[in-house]
Amino acid sequence: MKNQYYPNLADIITINGVTFKNRIFGAPMSNPELDPSCHMRKEDLAFHENRARGGLASVAVGLGIVDPVGRVHTKEVTLYDIGSLPSLKEYANAMHRHNCIAVMELAHGGKYAGARSHDGAGEPLVLGPNDEVNPDGLHVTSMSDEEIERVAGCYADAAVLCQKAGIDMVLVHGGHGWLLGQFMSPTMNHRTDKWGGSLENRMRFPLLVIDKIRKACGNKMLIEYRMSGSEIIEGGYGIDEGIKMAKVLDGKVDIIHVSAGVHEDQDAFVVTHPSMFIEHGCNVYLAAEIKKHVKTPVATVGGLNDPDMMEEIIASGQADIVEIARQSICDPYFPEKAFSGKKDDITKCCRCFTCFYNYLTNRTFCCAFNPVVGNELENKSGFPATEPKKVIVVGGGVGGMEAAITAAKRGHAVTLFEKNSRLGGQLLAEQYIPFKKDMYNFAQVLERRLRETNVDVRLNTKITAQEVAGLGADVVMVAVGAKPVVPPIEGIGSEKVARLDALHHEEPQVGQKVVILGGGLVGSEAAIYLDSLGKDVTIVEMKDDWASDAYFMHKNAMNIYMRGSNIKICLNTVAEAVTDEGLLCRTHEEEILLEADTVLLAAGMKVDQEQVNDFYHTAERVFMIGDCVKPGRVLEAVSLGYNRAIDI
Ligand SMILES: Cc1cc2nc3c(=O)[nH]c(=O)nc-3n(C[C@H](O)[C@H](O)[C@H](O)COP(=O)(O)O)c2cc1C
Description:
By secondary structure, this protein is an alpha/beta fold. It contains 20 helices and 29 strands. Strand 21, helix 17 and strand 22 form a beta-alpha-beta unit. Helix 2 packs across helix 3. The longest helix has 21 residues. About 55% of the residues are buried. Flavin mononucleotide binds next to strand 3, strand 4, helix 11 and helix 13.
């Protein structure tokens, strides 16, 4: 029988004798942290198991490194170490507990290896297609025939280890500028021997790897080959060559997985991991082109978060499989919800890069919208409260809603007061901003979830601390948000000055010439939005950088937009007065007048401490949530809302 909602997406696919329960695969993601021997810990396994639990047909662990020489950093599972076997086995078992195909990525850093995994004893050996110096200043040695044979053997040994562990498929990483991608690339491979030059020669090493894996593991171990359909860098190969490469792989691997880009190029990075400024499914065309020329099943990946779009991709034959990485962090239950008619309950990934940033810098998985991620072992939300309490939540932004939903699900009697006519708080501002659509969607999803609980929601109700105290609650959760910083400059009360809520309308309530006072993340995003509407936009920022509070990948993505836009950015510039003509400012050298019809205030938010203080001791237990603790991101508001509700 076919699934009534997504007959194509939910359809099984049998590849080389193995049946995948649907067409949504979990794209490879490496672990933000591992144990000191670089084996997966319980926490890492719990993260991947949660992806499997939600209905993905397969889940891939990223960056199993096949050779000590190929290590780039310490987030890579050491597949050359037999000591990895126990955790790999646990991983395979965890996947199989959910009828999910267990996949391990096989990778080698090639010329980018060395620096971050180096123990400091002398210059590490770094291998690549050519003799050169890599971006970390390390000498790269061109691989000899023997080295190529040896490393190809490492891939096969790693695959054998995976097979022993019960893993069903290896995903050979030939894209994004990893070693095999370096050999495939005309711009990275300058060899003149049989491993370089023609496309046939550049594909020789990947084919050797595949051949060795097949010989070592037999036909029973599935091989998925990840390639970039286009390198999307200057001098890199494009889709025409990508098609030819796929034709070489056709019939030799079980799945051709078509991604895009090269990770060392900042602009390409935000296409490999599509940013919120690019349309969803922006890389599907690469898979679709390749699929026209091969018989092997083709997978597509990148910026996919909508089951309707995925259904269309499969139904129209653009790809046989869709793969998701960030969406499976944001809502691991995505497939189950889609296939059971609950697509409206899917939390859609908004591509804010919270996951990637925290993975790299804080060495943990987390998600702006999903408070469970990274804490799967501690997740207790399913446990009913031992003693149901009377809970009052003040404020219906995302933090307040998350708190109310979680508390209600645990059995508490919750009343939520919101002073406005709508729930959603700050995220309501994103409704009309195309690249923030998925953020707005999150507020709507929370509202829907809230309505499905028995929370008593009182809109248009501004409740005071005294009134709250009079209600005799056991717990009060205060999520009243923050207020905008208003710089104390002359003319700030002028009609010309608008707050960010001027953007909360279908037609923003600003003039043609807009000067944005404050070039942090919020001001910079507002600038991009207004520029896209054809406004003349200038950003005034007193620091020496704009959007300095943005995650750096998001900033890269904004930068691409900024470069092609008419937005003027004035750094090291201090606003002095709002005049009839515009905003008078001072730089280090001079006073300048920036003409404006509207001066848009984006100078940050601050806690309304007086208001917050009033709420203390309105009940035995009072919890503060979100911006009223410290103005921050959705991440902190949702996390606090969820975790404090667990604390009740
Ligand atoms: C946190 C994180 C870790 C990732 N780790 C890997 C990895 O180890 N190997 C790999 O090939 N791709 C890795 N990727 C890339 C994804 O597999 C995927 O290609 C990319 O994120 C685009 O898909 P998405 O838009 O569904 O996230 C990672 C992505 C994220 C967000």
